[in-house]
Specification:
The protein has about 350 residues and is α/β, with parallel strands linked by helices. Helix content is about 35%, strand content about 15%.
Length: about 350
């Protein structure tokens, strides 16, 4: 394992990398971030989504989520789980992350900090897989969770359903991975075919990776953010932030979308087949955040999950729908430090 440490630099922050092994031996790592403000509050673990890395939380904006949390006195930890592009491409599943990666990461943070309880901010497939850990009772040390975009109920646009049911089975016969970097360099015939299709259908900007990301993850133009929410530097920065995502992921998310809720795929005895079949084995408070204009996972994804948890324990959890945001711009948007992060802070403060 050779993390790309150059990604974790700048803005007067200090980064310390703590390697750890997932329960099946996969080499992951934690990035501990510190700034000029003394840590006076609980550790907070940030968990990235699919086909990116922990650096996705370090966008070149006026104030990113890491800087915001540090200024508030939180002890900030970033998890690079097996989906991170800092590692060699691998055919991961949400089951593997839920059973092996996240519990080990939480245990490591508790071990290093000495804090018996921690908080978590989780995004996209970092959120789905982490919530699988939560529901299965594998991370009891986590008492407060901010989940963005999707958790237990993946709801996608109609065209995404078509892609998952029709296009994905076709594409997986040709390649084990999709990679937004194909917009910069397409090394194979399949990559060239995908890149040509993207160039023919996506005309929303001149950023080839941005367009590939929209094809890879959603149905919008773009799918993961609203261009008006990004500054120019961030729009250029995303070229280096996305890479390979395995077709194994799409197989599992397709099954879950069809079922209407998260489903396991590897039949591990520690994980339920359905993650809504029994009451969650957790006392954690969960705040469900959703971009009102999300074209990757529709906001109803988080609305349904909130209703599910609220029905089990009324007036305990929270739902925040952000009308002017999409998917990832919740974190990398130029004004997220004013529009979004204070709301997340309110939820983190509850317990």
């Amino acid at each position: 394992m050779k993390p790309v440490t150059e990604k974790y630099a700048g803005k007067n922050l200090q980064f310390e990398i703590f390697p750890f092994e997932a329960a099946d031996g996969f080499p992951c790592n934690l990035i501990h971030v510190s700034g000029s403000t003394k840590n006076t509050k609980d550790p907070v673990l940030l968990v990235h989504g699919a086909g990116v890395s922990a650096s996705i939380f370090l966008a070149p904006v006026n104030k990113n989520i890491v800087e915001f949390l540090l200024e508030e006195g939180y002890d900030v930890w970033l998890e690079n789980w097996r989906a991170s592009i800092d590692f060699a491409p691998n055919k991961w599943t949400l089951d593997q992350a839920a059973l092996y990666d996240h519990p080990a990461a939480v245990k490591k943070v508790v071990e290093i900090t000495g804090s018996p309880k921690i908080k978590a901010i989780i995004h996209c497939q970092g959120s789905t897989s982490f919530m699988m850990s939560v529901v299965a009772g594998l991370v009891p040390q986590v008492t407060n969770i901010v989940s963005n975009a999707v958790s237990l109920h993946p709801v996608v646009p109609d065209f995404s359903r078509f892609k998952l049911s029709v296009m994905v089975p076709m594409v997986k016969q040709l390649t084990d991975y999709l990679n937004p970097q194909w917009g910069i360099k397409a090394p194979s015939l399949t990559a060239k075919m995908v890149n040509t299709l993207v160039q023919l259908t996506h005309h929303e900007c001149n950023n080839s990776v941005c367009k590939q990301v929209s094809f890879t993850y959603g149905s919008g133009f773009p799918a993961l953010w609203r261009h008006e929410n990004l500054n120019d530097e961030t729009h250029e920065w995303i070229k280096s932030q996305f890479a390979a995502v395995p077709m194994t992921f799409y197989k599992q998310i397709a099954r879950s979308v069809k079922a209407g809720h998260l489903m396991s795929i590897e039949k591990k005895k520690e994980l339920p087949d359905s993650f809504v079949a029994a009451a969650p084995a957790t006392e954690a408070r969960i705040s469900f955040f959703a971009g009102g204009k999300n074209l990757c996972f529709l906001p109803d994804s988080q609305v349904q999950s909130f209703k599910y948890f609220d029905n089990l324990r009324q007036n305990y959890h929270a739902l925040r729908v952000l009308p002017d945001y999409s998917h990832l711009d919740v974190f990398i948007g130029k004004n997220a430090y004013k529009d979004v992060f204070p709301l997340m802070l309110q939820e983190l403060r509850v317990n």
